[in-house]
Amino acid sequence: MSSRIAKKSVPELPSIEALRARMDEINLKILRLVSLRANLATEIGRLKHSDGGQVYQPVRERAIIEKMIAENQGPLSDEQVKRIYVEIISACRALEHEPRVAFLGPEHTYSHEAARMRFGASVEFAPQPSFAAVFQEIENGRADFGVVPVENSTEGSVGLTLDLLIDTPLVIIGEILAPVRHSILSRDGDPSAVKKIVSHQQSLAQCRVYLTTNYPHCETEAVASNALAAQLARDDSSLAAIASAAAGEAYGLKSIAANVQDLATNTTRFIVMGPRPVERSGKDKTTILFAVADRVGTLNQALGLFARNAINISKIESRPLRARPWEYLFFVDLMGHREDPKLARALKSLAAKALFLKVLGSYPVGRSAAA
User: Fold this and answer.
1) How far apart are CA 293 and CA 253, in angstroms?
2) What is the mean pLDDT of the chain?
3) What amino acid positions are annotated as catalytic residues?
4) Which of 102, 139, 209, 237 has the highest CB neighbour number within 10 Å of its CB?
5) How far apart are the first and last CA of the chain?
6) Phi and psi dihedrals of 31, rounded to 5?
7) How would you label 2-31 residue by residue, b for 16+ Cβ within 10 Å and e otherwise?
8) Other beta carbons less than 10 A from residue 142's beta carbon
9) Are strands 124-128 and 100-104 parallel, antiparallel or unpaired?
10) Strand 100-104 with 145-152, pairing
11) ∠ CA 179-259-224, rounded to 5°
């Protein structure tokens, strides 16, 4: 007796056309949902306007993004999810009011990229020629917010920003932790044609070992910004610029090498300046500035107030008092919001002991792009 072996049926794979048709359906659903969200944002904007509320709500926006990241199950990375929602929030916010954001220009600098990371693309970006001009734009009402660098993980604090914080009536309302990824760029992409490498002085310092090892024959020159360096390299084939890949794309340059910073973890911390303080988020940082009498033990006593109230100090930096040689102001980052009971109590005690105390702002702790 002969027996026949039944062939197993192989499930038929969907065609590209069928998958694209399904994707088109999903795209329409996404559009309808985003439009519904935009309508709700517009209605919220009307209510904010009638109540005199602020359009930009960093605490609320952070909470939305953190919730989406917590719910993310892939395949998109957390950073990709964050970027998508930054742009959705930015576009919806612009229906209420398109903020004007000042930053140290020109465009395609790391300050510009940090501003886009925080506010998205649906804002009016206002490049400024100096740090002081960024502060002035906000103080004079010509900009809603400003973004300035305050420290780099390799090169330390930005003294110009710290000096401007002393006298400004503005407050810190946020921080941005932006990874720094330097590229060497030139017009032709030919390393043998490069005679000089130009960039901002901080970028040159952050690539010092790489340049010494790979370009010992090349002269280096510091210029006002990495974007200006890219412009110069565009116009002269003997120059190479150290700048971001985005700057290279904007100015039509070719990449010779990527990620040339000496430390892979190179990160710049930017602060967001605004005219009014922000509420508690539950995970905040407070930056203060104070001075104490030049006597033995006074600084230790001042800092001890935070230890007694279980307040963590994440950073302390001194700056010379301009009118009094060899005396100092102290910039301190504290974990917590100024309205938290323990921190409020410590600040009240410090105000009674210090010669001078200024709370520069309480704001949500920045989330690293690598986190």
Assistant:
1) 54
2) 90
3) 268, 270
4) 102
5) 68
6) -60, -45
7) eeeeeeeeeeeeeeeeeeeeeeeeeeeeee
8) 11
9) parallel
10) parallel
11) 70
Packing angle, helices 78-96 and 110-119, rounded to 10: 80
DSSP assignment of 58-76 equals HHHHHHHHHHHHHH--SSS
State the DSSP string of 268-284: EEEEEEESS-----SSE
Strand-strand pairing, 156-157 and 356-364: unpaired
Under 8 Å between Cβ of 171 and 277: yes
Residue range 250-298, pLDDT digits in tens: 999 999 999 999 998 889 999 999 999 999 999 999 999 999 888 888 8
Pairing of strands 219-223, 196-200: parallel
- 144: which DSSP letter? S
Is 64 in contact with 85 (CB distance < 8 Å)? yes
Nearest-Å Rg of the Cα atoms of the chain is 25
User: What are the beta bridge partners of residue 103?
Assistant: 127, 147
Residues 6+ apart with CB under 8 A from 66: 367
- Cα–Cα distance measured from residue 184 to residue 254, given in angstroms and rounded to the nearest whole number: 9
For residue 339, the 8-state DSSP code is T
Alpha helix (H) residue ranges in 52-190:
58-71, 78-96, 110-119, 131-139, 159-167
Q: Can you tell me whether residue 176 is helix, strand or coil?
A: strand
Which candidate, 242, 231, 156, 244, places its Cα nearest to that of 207?
242
Q: What is the pLDDT of residues 297-307, one digit of tens each?
A: 889 999 999 99
Pairing of strands 196-200, 239-243: parallel
> pTM for this structure?
0.84
Q: What is the DSSP letter of 147?
A: E
Amino acid at 263: L
Taking residue 81's Cβ as centre, other Cβ atoms within 10 Å add up to 17
Q: What is the pLDDT of residue 45?
A: 81
In angstroms, rounded to a whole number, what is the distance separating the alpha carbons of residues 69 and 18?
Answer: 30
State how far the Cα of 371 lies from the Cα of 340, in Å rounded to an integer. 26
Q: How far apart are CA 184 and CA 179, in angstroms?
A: 17
Task: Give the three-state DSSP class for 311.
Answer: coil
Instruction: Name the one residue in this structure whose structure tokens are 């305050």.
Output: 150
Structure-block tokens of residue 162: 């710290």
Question: What tokens were used for 1?
Answer: 């007796």
